[in-house]
Amino acid sequence: RIGGCAPRGRQQKRPAAELVLLLGIGGGPHKMPSTKKPKKTAAAKAEKIAASTKKPAKGGGKKGAPGQKLKSHEKLKATLDKLAVARPRVYGIGGALPPKQRDLTRFVRWPAHVRLQRQRRVLYSRLKTPPALNQFTHTADKNTAKQLFTLLAKYKPEEKHAKRQRERAAAAAAAADGAKAAAPSKKKPLTVKFGINHVTQLVEQKRAKLVVIAHDVDPVEVVVWLPYLCRKLEVPFIIVKSKSRLGQMVHHKTAAALAVTDVRNEDRAALAALVSFAKDNYNNNVTMRRQWGGGKVGVKSQAVVNKRQRQKEREERRRARR
Question: Does the model's pTM come out above 0.85?
């Protein structure tokens, strides 16, 4: 120590009670306040018991009694009643929704794939399209398409899980029979054939009795040559809507073309009617092979053409009067 004091860094802190005693605050020795609660007397205990057993006065617990505080939910309800004031409906700017009969299609922001397919449809109607592309606009009518899809639904290919279950059942039956198990049948079930390569092979081998082509295949180059191949090999074909509907027949999202190779005896008449329709309207239809498509103007352009035509007629009538 230097000068009777401890170094600055080593000074010891004394408790507050000791400092108070040393300084002599309060004129004498200071006692620390006690943290213990004061003991209740017998009279205080008796008063508390009497207050708890005392019954409330009549009407004291009723809602809205004078001098009684409102609960939180009652205050909120009162505030909402003040806010929810009935106001008359004003059918002006911003006062109501647009009328229901108004078509807002032009103001909707459609997804990219919807915009593309609509623009493609408009472009095909405006530009002149060659017969090779225009033939896909001649689809089968509703009744014929219904008959066709009814026939195709009977010959849907077997799904994977169904085939697995059938094979397991056959294996279990063979194991149960033992040596007496019959050999599995090698005859394939009658189903619709799909896949553009498979359908092409069936057409080239002349095994396909009817070919069904979708009208909205993209890119169209996948099937644009298939009608000419069917005509050359004299295989009946039909163009229908649409690739998603054909895909449902074979448990896929889409299908470009399907082929029917054979049907059961009860469906031969339905197949013959569809083959006859296909030959008359597609295979032997010379007009469809030579007809160009497109060249349709829009509404505004058609209005301009009509206006010029009226002006021309008016001028001719004026010259005739002279």
Answer: no
